[in-house]
Amino acid sequence: MNISFENVDKVSALLTVNIEKADYEDKVKKALKDFSHKASLPGFRPGKVPASLIQKRFGTEVKAEEINKLLGEEVNKYIRENKINMLAEPLPNEEKTPAMNFETQDDFTFAFDIALAPEFDAKLSKKDKLTYYDIKVDDALVDQQVQSFCQRGGQHVKVESYDAGDLVKGTLSQLDDKGNTLEGGITVEDAVMLPEYMKDDKEKAKFKGTKVGDVITINPAKAYADSATELSSLLRITKEEAEGMKADFSFQISEISRFEPAKPTQELFDKMLGEGVVKSEEEFRQFIANDIKRNFASEEEYQFTQDLRSYLLDRIGKVEFPEALLKRFMKLRNQDKEESYVDDNFEKSLPELLWHLAKEQICDQLEIKVEHEDVLETAKTYTRIQFAQYGMMNLPEESVTKYAAEMLKNEEQAQGLVERTVENKLVAKAKEVVTLKKKEVTLEEFRKLTEKK
User: Fold this and answer.
1) Does the N terminus or the C terminus of the chain have fewer Cβ atoms within 10 A?
2) What does DSSP assign to residue 180?
3) pLDDT tens-digit series, residues 370-423
4) Hey, what CATH topology would domain 155-260 get?
């Protein structure tokens, strides 16, 4: 067997493999022999089919299979041993691969187009200067979060008189043109309304200063701007009936309730964070500040990753890619897509490819390796963030691990978590290698800065 490698230009090459009969003959004989032990043909007992018949019936097929298997193994071995920095997979070159007949030929030639990675230097050193934005956790942010906890821990309490934002309950009765209760008209007991959300200010104002037991006259159609959906829900009628409803209604208030946020007491701390996690308002605020800072840390790291990416791609500058070969490969991998897919997406894919190659180079430089446990930890971090969004701050560790393991069963999610883990490790190492300038910013400043970028 002979394998030759020829550079066509800086970013593409031709790999040619010549396979002779001696390279595959023994493998074919062994494969046919193994096949004959289990072959079953009409008129013969299993394993008793004559070798000549096996050769005649299956020889060409087995020969082609063994040659292709050998070809794949030797091509991969050559690329690995010669450390060829290749993009995508070897693509068959039909022009330079002679026509072949596995039945009559003994020697074969296969040619492959190889897309080579461009040469560039992405290695990091103290010469590289980057800014790391540190988001300040101030009292205003902590106050907002304390209020959020108090809102979540609050409850509705009954009051005697109405104030803006209160919820009212009572009996709605349809009136006639003279303002009297309409016989056979609509009556709704335990009707519930939030006057603050009424569209008409005059109707909303009728509730001002009212008390439990008061009776007022309202026009639901005006109050809700003739919304058939809201009218049908309030009056418990169909949307078709609600379309023509313009009547006034009396409303006798039977109950007024007001939402009162919880106070920052031990009861709230235990309810929101778990029993005994914090034992004072000061500890509660510190817990919140630490949690905000942890959440900010992921944003800070993400922004630094984006800044590092932009910095390196600018530093590397324009590189030459084997575009024709990469387009062929993209088209091959997306045969289910429309013809325009490659044209629409190719240019956008190049910065991503260059960043991927740069990350690989830096990982080699800084000896970064990712193990399964590292990926699991990343998945656990995302799990905690997701549950924290719903106020579940202290999920048991075994539950976090369980949910994280489930995430890793999804191939697409797992691949994303692997890439995120690589970037996390890369960023952590990069911060030690480059010249880092930390800059403290407020959350508002950080938001403006990231929007601009």
Assistant:
1) C
2) S
3) 999 999 999 998 888 888 777 676 778 888 999 999 999 999 999 999 998 999
4) Chitinase A; domain 3 (3.10.50)
